[in-house]
Amino acid sequence: MPYNILFVLTSHGKMGNTDKPTGWYLPELAHPYNVLKGQNANITIASPAGGKAPLDPASVEMFKEDKESQDFLKEEHLWSHTKKLSDFVGKAKEFDAIVIPGGHGPMFDLATDTTSQQIIREFYESGKVVSAVCHGPAALVNVKLSGGSYLVNGEPISTFTNAEEDQVGLSQYMPFMLETELEKHGAKIEKADPWQEKVIVAGKDGRLITGQNPASAAGLGKAVLKAIGG
User: Fold this and answer.
1) Cα(117)–Cα(140) distance, rounded to whole angstroms?
2) How is the chain classified by DSSP, letter by letter?
3) What gap in Å lies between CA 16 and CA 7, rounded to an integer?
4) CA distances for 17 relative to 14, 108, 173, angstroms
């Protein structure tokens, strides 16, 4: 039977209250999508608002030499017609995993989206894989389990680091520093040097999978595939 995977993209296209464009980050969808699609997974893509999910144009430029990412741009229908995230409340049992790509957008919507938090909790408590890469763990930072504890509490987590945020010069625009906020909620941050691959498999039965940055996106996809039995 094919695997069923839910990808969740941001609907937020501006860097805070500036006019700087942001959104989701090209290789962080392209790479894990291709890893999982290559194993004939059924992939559904959702976002808080539904419809077109904004692609960060900076990621297109940054990965212009990455053939896999550039080829993926031909698949625009995948993010132009996303499902509304709220349609998936109570549907965790229909899926094997949830994958949350980064880009700075999730810092502004998924981090505080209560529907997203509910769905992530339902996936995790239903024995499904929960995964996120780069700024994707912003969607995890405020998730509480039914018992009241934070999902990330006591867990090794990999995420876009404060050092990486400083290096790209965007810390001033962030509503919070992701590494710091995860630590506040009990996460044990594990990191590689800036821009190097780091994927962490943690959580109950190895079902909480996180990656540090764009270089970790393919590795995240492979770890998800392994966790669901692929």
Assistant:
1) 7
2) ---EEEEE-----BSTTSS-B--B-HHHHHHHHHHHHTTT-EEEEEESS-BPPPB-HHHHHHTTT-HHHHHHGGGTHHHHSBEEGGGGTT-GGG-SEEEE--SSGGGTTTTT-HHHHHHHHHHHHTT-EEEEETTGGGGTTT-B-TTSSBTTTT-EE----HHHHHHTT-GGG-SS-HHHHHHHTT-EE---STTS--EEEESGGG-EEEE-SGGGHHHHHHHHHHHTT-
3) 23
4) 7, 10, 8
The answer, as to whether pTM is greater than 0.90, is: yes
Structure tokens that stand for 9 in this block: 């993209």
SS3 (DSSP) at 123: helix
Q: What are the tens digits of pLDDT across the range 112-148?
A: 999 999 999 999 999 999 999 999 999 999 999 999 9
Cα distances from 42 to residues 1, 91, 139, 172, in angstroms, run: 10, 15, 22, 39
